[in-house]
Amino acid sequence: MLDPTRTTPANDDPRDREPPPPGFTLPFEAPASEAAPAPDPELVRLASEVSRGVSWLYWAVGLSVVNAITAAAGADWSFALALGASLVPAVIVHVLAAEAGMPWLNVIGVALALVPAGALFGLAWLGKRGKPWALVVAMMVYAGDTALFVFFEDGLGVILHLVCLWFVFRAWQATSALVARTAG
Q1: What b/e sequence results for 82-98 when a residue is b if at least 16 CB atoms lie within 10 Å of its CB, and e otherwise?
Q2: Where are the domains of the chain?
Q3: For a FRET experiment, which of 64, 90, 92, 141 has its CA 20 to 30 Å from that of 183?
Q4: pTM exceeds 0.90
Q5: Which has the minimum average pLDDT: 54-58, 101-105, 171-175?
Q6: How far apart (Å, rounded) are the C-alpha atoms in residues 87 and 5?
């Protein structure tokens, strides 16, 4: 029961509250008889396919940032899934900074490396929100980046880039199907 001596909400114990009357619902709650319909399994599958493909791009972006920072620190390793277009400027600026004796220039290298990574992030973000054209542009960018790995003869990088491109292609197909289904 409610205690009339309690005046502050801090002392209000939820166990002391009376239950609501039968059939009572808050304005934002749907009555139990109006349960939400089951989602369409095909829409769930398509949305999952989009999410799966875009997550590959997010991984590539994240690993590109890590590569840029480690290259600026002078590491001689990198993640093969990341953008080569992000790694190249970071490495070039690191070498120039070391030769000039100005290590602070590495900040510029990291900033330059973030430009293609940020662009790919933006495209992935738009693709996740139902813009098929963004995934097409992302595939073109990533295919061009794959060419860098072919040029530098990095077989693992080429394979991982091709796998990523496959999943992004599947995401583009699913996004296009979702757009067609919701438009029609």
Answers
A1: bbbbbbbbbbebbeebe
A2: 43-183
A3: 141
A4: no
A5: 101-105
A6: 68
CB of 109 closer than 8 Å to CB of 90? yes
* Residues whose CB falls within 8 Å of the CB of residue 100, separated by 6 or more in sequence, listed in order: none
- Rounded to an integer, what distance in angstroms lies between the CA atom of residue 169 and that of residue 135? 8
pLDDT > 70 in the chain, percent: 80
| pLDDT in the model for residue 140 | 97
Give dist(CA 48, CA 52) in Å, integer. 6
Angle between helices 41-72 and 155-183 (to 10 degrees): 140
Reading the block at residue 57, the tokens are 């791009």
Q: Is the dihedral of CA 136, 139, 145, 150 positive or negative?
A: negative
Percentage helix, strand, coil, to 5, in the chain?
70, 0, 30
Model confidence at 183, pLDDT cuts 50, 70, 90, reads confident
Which are the contacts of 96, defined by CB distance < 8 A and separation ≥ 6?
105
| Alpha carbons 183 and 152: distance in angstroms, whole number | 44
DSSP conformational letter for 7: -
* Vertex 93: Cα angle to 108 and 84 (nearest 5): 95
